[in-house]
Sequence to fold (333 residues):
Amino acid sequence: MDVHRKILKLLYRSLDAELTEKQRRRLEAELAGSEEFRRERDRILALRKAIAESPGRTFRPGFANRTLARVRSDRPTTSAADLFFENFKSVFQRIAVVSAVLLLALAAYSLTHRDLVPKDAVYYASDVAFGRILQLPVF
Amino acid sequence: METAEQEILARAKSGDELAFRTIIEKYESRISATVTGILGFSADVDDIGQETFVRFYQSIHRFRGDSSIGTYLTRIAINLSLNELKRRKRKERLRPEDMPGDLPPGPRSGEGDRAADARVVVQRGLQMLDPKFRTVLVLRLMDGYSTRETAEMLRLPLGTVLSRLARGQARMREILEAIDDKGDGYKGEGDGCA
Fold:
């Protein structure tokens, strides 16, 4: 970076951030010794002033009223019917959740207890029952 | 955040419309400067301004007051303005470079209008600047935020903000000198401007 650009960078930086003591002294020396740098600084300051003073337009009159009207129109409406359905929905959702949990518990229970009565026992009982039935006198 | 501002905020949070109106009236000029600085003098500036406050209203219960209301609003305004710029860019892809869609009217010739003309020219210059430089110049020089606040608002490192400020001003000078060569009213020498 050439010297001119370095000083220019310091000049810009000095207006927005703190320089180190060494940088500050260097900039001051350059400004004191160079008419060109002093003119440059004046141009930069003039530009900054022009930008700072440039916002010449505000929102159209009645801005607050228009904004509040928009806020009101965006606000969700809660009529009595809406309120009823909202409450109904939330109660139904709770019932649905409890039912789902009960169903899951029932399914889990039946899965874990399905071998409680052995199949053999079931079939044996069935044979005996059938035998007894066959041995019974016919009326 | 000041006590008075906290009170207004608490009232606005509880649904007090008058408190929210106070917030709008207090910050509308600041938001107008920010939005106009980024978007230029255009019809949609008013809409973006309204949208800024509507978004604030919608998120007011989440606003914990870590920053001031003004800073929070400015951040919303910047995001909305940058989104609008992107939308415009998509829309105007076929237009020549460096020709923003909504330039302010050209300078007038009357002696008494010189200051207003200079403002218009500066606004034209700003609109020709790359948005990343423009946003930094608007926040720092127009809105008067410190470089640290600007960095926080744009979520950029401080060094990037300083570099963009320097490059933005240098580019802005070139643009204004080019406009000046055409005789449009900006005088960048010493106290001749504004």
Residues 80-112 of chain A form the longest helix (33 residues). Chain A touches chain B through 31 residues (CB under 8 Å).
